[in-house]
Amino acid sequence: MSALLTSAKESLGALADLLLPRTCLACGRRLDVHEKQLCIYCKADLPYTYYWTRPHNPMADRLNECIQRHLSEKTTEAADSAEPYAYAAALFFYKSGSGYREITKALKYHGNTVAGRYFASILAARLYESEQFSDVDLVVPVPLHWTRQWQRGYNQAAVIAKVVADGLKHAEMEPRLLRRGRRTKTQTKLSIDEKSRNVSGAFQVRKQPEFYPRHILLIDDVFTTGATLSECHRALREVYGPEVRISVATLACVGA
Ligand SMILES: [Zn+2]
What we know:
This protein is α/β, with parallel strands linked by helices. It has two domains: 40 residues; 209 residues, Rossmann fold. Helices cover 43% and strands 15% of the residues. It has ten helices and seven strands. A five-stranded parallel beta sheet has the order 1-7-6-2-3, with helices on both faces. Strands 4-5 form a two-stranded antiparallel sheet. β6, α10 and β7 form a beta-alpha-beta unit. Bound molecules: zinc ion. The site of zinc ion has 8 residues, from α2. Zinc ion binds next to α2.
């Protein structure tokens, strides 16, 4: 019976593909009924970072540099408090000019939340197996300003965060923990210093969860300079002491 159902499902899938062909996000090749989002060639070549297996990696270094810069701007007394090295991991790299850029563009600009959830589930499985991330108990997406979320209809980081929280099994997602108090310029065309100034002080903790977390995971779609995520880290540190670990995970990481 179940074999019959499976074959009926496959036939329906094949029929749907015939009427409305699905294409590979990265190369545009037509997908067959067994392929999801990427063709077998692009899936096999997906440039995984494997950063979930490396507590110290270039992405985490970049994030921690931003965090330390914030601390050095504070008074000496505050800067003395020991800030633990923050863990950070992305699922895959952006190579310049590569089609893999289309994965996060599809989620952010074209409303393709199905693709976002698919890649988020792969990320979640990697984080669940990882020593650094398996004990995460609270997942927090980087918030959009409410006017931008209203325009887009959803927050792409929250789409990823929901899947990651489910995949981590012992974690809850709290999309309203952070708020973006002011609308910031799109970061893509700004220099590193401009990016940092653009998001400085943009986030606040709005509503604390019912329980006191031990390990918070901040989620965004793409990691570039670390400016946005380190600002979220700073806002959380205003409320949570150094005994609470704050880590970062994204779908993509732009190469240095
Ligand atoms: Zn392809």
